[in-house]
Amino acid sequence: IALENMKDDAKRAEEEKKARAINLASMRAMDRLRSSSHPIMVFPSGTRYRPGRPETKKGRREIDSYIKSSDIMILLSINGNCLRLSESNNMEDDLIYKDKMIITCSPVYDCGVFREKVKSEHPNTTDIKQDVVDEVMKHLEIMHEKIEKTR
């Protein structure tokens, strides 16, 4: 269950605390890797898209922290799916199939410029972090759809 959908305030607070700890550990690990010139791959929605569940396409606002702390980014669109949904709808039960995978790269984006452009396009926003991630997801969707037309 997504944190936003949790009804029990105490349980939600406990899960938010765990999520912050995981995010902080992730940021520290990324900083160590970045300082030794390793590329970092982050999946902004945190899951694969599940047909009929549009919430799985929504980017997580926490991803803005990664963008904000990086100099450049390249978006990767992955078309194809070698995992098929199981009838149980449990990802652990998904089935492996052979498929043609097409990975498309965007141009290199300057993260600071990217964020500033989003800010300028949303001057009255109440959540710039979500706006930045929504823009990333919009770019990914455009890339994905362009390839799907030819697949």
How would you describe this protein?
- By secondary structure, this protein is α+β, with helices and mostly antiparallel strands.
- The chain starts with 8 loop residues before the first helix and ends with a helix.
- The protein has a two-stranded antiparallel sheet. A two-stranded antiparallel sheet has the order 2-3.
- The radius of gyration is 17 Å and the shape is globular.
- The chain has 4 helices and 4 strands.
- Helix 3 packs across helix 4 (128-148).
List the helices and strands in order: HHEEEEHH
Span between termini: 33 Å
How many strand segments?
4
Fraction of residues in helix:
40-55%
Features:
151 residues, alpha+beta, two-stranded antiparallel sheet, 14% strand, globular
Care to give the gist of this entry?
The chain is α+β, with helices and mostly antiparallel strands.
Describe how the helices and strands are arranged:
Blueprint: H1 9-35, H2 63-68, E1 72-79, E2 83-84, E3 95-96, E4 102-110, H3 111-121, H4 128-148
Antiparallel strand pairs: 1-4, 2-3
